[in-house]
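Researcher: We plan to redesign the surface later, but first we want a full-length starting point. Tokens attached.
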């Protein structure tokens, strides 16, 4: 039956040109098929009938037309056979699993087989080469190669290449086909077979290995017909386009290498290949480096999966997805959506696509602060989505402890309790989402490199202390130097020491490991306050194994103090933009930190003198001390002045005016301006806004529009936040209270139409257009005319031409593209400005 449906031809090539350790295994798959063996006996007739009666998942019934179309195509390719149960019930080893359908954004739905439902996955013996599954860190490897590339050769360009029909390229062993039966829906989830990824990855990882090996030796690969096709596909604009960003960047890490050759690299995630390459240096003879990478990757695919030949069945396809190739995936570009992330190799950033960023906010909004419980299925799905997006949120891996603990400590199988720790973690994600929605994540914040500073820390029942050995390449802050070790210590206050678990205080709630973890956070903060470690890797070592494991994993199995401290670790890393690494040091080797955490009775000179035998003799030591109250107040005043300096003068005046009106309003009522005695502050804001709208409290005592009244209320809220109070406009779900929303909406409906101010008179634009069409207009004049007209209509966007204080459009916001390659305006070589 198999021969009659799919024929004898395997999708594997002869494999003669595959000098790889996996060749023998691939040949076994080619001639014998992939095996499926179980640890349990064959199913009984009762088990088969039970699975058949249960049938497919509900989603499969909802997409019957789609499944019929999909299976018709797969039957023509010899990938599936659909038969009545009565014709296969006698087949040895038969098992039946339910299918389902998953809707996908901007794509056709995806059908799946839930091999977990009846424990097919759980009972499958792991006979595949599990070590071939290296795709879990594919994105990390790609980002590392981009970061390590020598910028002297220009930005890294990326391509994508997809294997069509995926797992179906490797056939099953004939005797094992019935074991993966599917209950197809008739007119009356999410797990592939666990051995499928490693079996298929054996082939695709071999392709990537072959490509990288040949990139080191082959400089002029022969032509490939798909390479010529990809080279001449019309360029597409980057999708989705990135917003213009102005990132404050740290200088390139001096520990990064400067390779003598441009980057040439290939990697794979299951069936999605990614190529990364830089242009050949100017004046280089022969083939461009980028085209060399693409050709070698295509040839490597053909060496494992045979290309189309004249005798093939008409339904068979090229191993390389022609649909993706025609869409421009194989075009080189500096901005690519790779494995679900937007990578910009010019700005060296990675960001969530807009739809994933919106989905993150949607997930967070689905659990408002007032919600006390949820279902396990919803919580599992939310955790899965948050973890999948955590890569672009530096420090996010440290936030999951309380959220994960909610699953393990659930009192009921049907309910998950959402306590304060869970909602605090969700609020941390909301804060991070606000950050990444406007600022992509720098790749240098994600990839660990050799540490620029190594430190040891320790904690005791008395306090914590540590020592850092900074590298010479670190930039010290004022008052510090990178040529001497940095020491610090902090004595625990009484309310901490009184709660420590000891022999005399067995009912305490703080353990020594908790103090060690707190000491580890103080250790990192001492370095941050003394040196600029943005986008740098630092190594922190402690002599408590529990603390080291918590720090490395970024999570704990409890919701107690360690979970809270680990969240602070994540926030600290997110704010200060460094990459922490953690390691263990034995107590016997940690004498300096041990002494610093105990000997608080000794002043600094005496303590350092007692440790002189363990410290460098020539450089001495520098002491990191906490900020004094006076210095803190001074810095706070400077910070507030910086905030005010970042506001336009007109805005600052409006803010001061609104606050003075608010002071007069609350003074008349005899209440504190911050309404500290009132839980519900919205009625006061409603009355205040009403008096502003009527003109009674407006600046010129004339009626104003709804926008001005809204601005007054916003200024009051900003002053609340500036003074450390909560936004009085928000309800318990952190949304603008509906009473304010409805009030402002009613006023907007009665507002007169706004008066528009055009940037320049329309006759000027008409004159420019007419001059550009004359025979005397040069190409340069015509291009300038086009840009002026475009700029005119850009400024006419809603909100940009009214007499308000919106952000101005600057030259740094301009981005230029040729296809999906963004051109660095100041550094792109002349040859890049011409289209191919």
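Model: Full-length starting sequence:
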């Amino acid at each position: 039956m198999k021969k009659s449906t799919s024929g004898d031809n395997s999708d594997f090539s002869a494999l003669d040109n595959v000098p790889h350790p996996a060749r023998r295994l691939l040949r076994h798959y080619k001639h014998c098929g992939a095996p499926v063996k179980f640890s349990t006996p064959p199913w009984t007739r009762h088990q088969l009938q039970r699975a058949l009666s249960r049938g497919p998942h509900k989603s499969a019934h909802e997409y019957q037309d789609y499944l019929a179309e999909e299976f018709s195509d797969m039957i023509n390719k010899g990938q599936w056979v659909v038969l009545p149960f009565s014709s296969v019930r006698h087949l040895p080893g038969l098992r039946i699993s339910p299918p389902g359908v998953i809707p996908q954004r901007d794509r056709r739905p995806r059908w799946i087989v839930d091999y977990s439902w009846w424990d097919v996955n759980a009972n499958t013996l792991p006979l595949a080469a599990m070590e071939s599954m290296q795709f879990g860190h594919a994105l990390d490897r790609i980002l590392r190669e981009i970061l390590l590339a020598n910028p002297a050769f220009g930005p890294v360009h990326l391509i994508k290449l997809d294997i069509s029909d995926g797992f179906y390229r490797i056939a099953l062993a004939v005797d094992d086909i019935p074991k993966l039966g599917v209950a197809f829906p008739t007119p009356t989830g999410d797990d592939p077979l666990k051995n499928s990824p490693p079996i298929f990855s054996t082939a695709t990882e071999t392709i990537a290995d072959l490509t990288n090996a040949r990139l080191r030796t082959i400089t002029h690969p022969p032509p490939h017909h798909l390479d010529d096709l990809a080279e001449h596909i019309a360029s597409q604009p980057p999708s989705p386009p990135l917003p213009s960003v102005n990132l404050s960047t740290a200088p390139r890490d001096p520990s990064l290498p400067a390779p003598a050759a441009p980057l040439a690299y290939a990697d794979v995630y299951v069936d999605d290949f990614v190529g990364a390459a830089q242009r050949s240096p100017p004046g280089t003879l022969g083939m461009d480096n980028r085209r060399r990478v693409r050709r070698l990757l295509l040839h490597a695919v053909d060496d494992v999966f045979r290309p189309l030949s004249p005798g093939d069945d008409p339904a068979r396809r090229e191993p390389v997805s022609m649909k993706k190739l025609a869409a421009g995936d194989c075009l080189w570009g500096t901005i690519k959506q790779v494995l679900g992330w937007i990578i910009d190799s010019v700005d060296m950033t990675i960001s969530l696509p807009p739809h994933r960023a919106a989905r993150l906010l949607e997930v967070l909004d689905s659990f408002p602060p007032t919600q006390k419980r949820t279902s396990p299925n919803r919580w599992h799905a939310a955790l899965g989505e948050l973890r999948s997006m955590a890569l672009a949120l530096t420090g996010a891996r440290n936030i999951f402890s309380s959220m994960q603990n909610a699953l393990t400590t659930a009192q009921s199988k049907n309910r998950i309790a959402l306590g304060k720790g869970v909602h605090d973690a969700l609020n941390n994600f909301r804060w991070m989402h606000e950050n990444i929605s406007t600022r992509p994540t720098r790749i240098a914040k994600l990839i660990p490199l050799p540490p620029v500073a190594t430190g040891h820390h320790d904690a005791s029942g008395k306090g914590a202390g540590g020592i850092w050995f900074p590298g010479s390449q670190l930039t010290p802050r004022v008052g510090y130097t990178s040529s001497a070790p940095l020491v610090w210590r902090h004595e625990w206050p009484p309310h901490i020491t009184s709660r420590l678990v000891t022999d005399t205080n067995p009912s305490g709630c703080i353990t020594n490991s908790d103090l060690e973890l707190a000491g580890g956070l103080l250790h990192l903060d001492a370095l941050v306050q003394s040196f600029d470690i943005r986008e740098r890797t630092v190594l922190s070592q402690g002599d408590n194994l529990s603390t080291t494991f918590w720090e490395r994993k970024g999570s704990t199995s409890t919701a107690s103090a360690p979970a809270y401290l680990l969240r602070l670790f994540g926030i600290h890393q997110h704010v200060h933009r460094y990459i922490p690494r953690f390691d263990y040091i034995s107590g016997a080797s940690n004498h300096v930190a041990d002494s610093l955490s105990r000997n608080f009775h000794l002043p600094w000179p005496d303590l350092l003198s007692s440790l002189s035998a363990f410290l460098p003799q020539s450089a001495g030591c520098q002491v990191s001390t906490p900020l004094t109250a006076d210095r803190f107040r001074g810095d706070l005043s400077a910070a507030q002045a910086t905030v005010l300096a970042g506001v336009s003068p007109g805005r600052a005046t409006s803010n001061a005016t609104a606050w003075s009106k608010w002071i007069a309003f609350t003074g008349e009522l005899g209440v504190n301006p911050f309404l500290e005695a009132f839980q519900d502050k919205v009625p006061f804001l409603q009355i205040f806004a009403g008096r502003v709208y009527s003109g009674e409290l407006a600046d010129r005592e004339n009626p104003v529009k709804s926008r001005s009244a809204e601005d007054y209320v916003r200024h009051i809220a900003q002053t609340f936040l500036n003074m450390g109070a909560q936004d009085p406009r928000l309800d318990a779900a952190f949304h603008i209270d509906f009473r304010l929303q409805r009030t402002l909406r009613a006023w907007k409906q009665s507002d007169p139409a706004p008066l528009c101010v055009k940037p320049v008179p329309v006759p000027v634009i008409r004159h420019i257009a007419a001059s550009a069409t004359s025979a005397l207009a040069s190409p340069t004049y015509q291009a300038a005319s086009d840009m002026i007209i475009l700029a005119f209509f850009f400024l006419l966007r809603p909100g940009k031409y009214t007499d308000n204080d919106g952000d101005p459009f600057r030259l740094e916001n301009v981005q230029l593209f040729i296809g999906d390659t963004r051109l660095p305006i100041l550094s792109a070589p002349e040859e890049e400005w011409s289209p191919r």
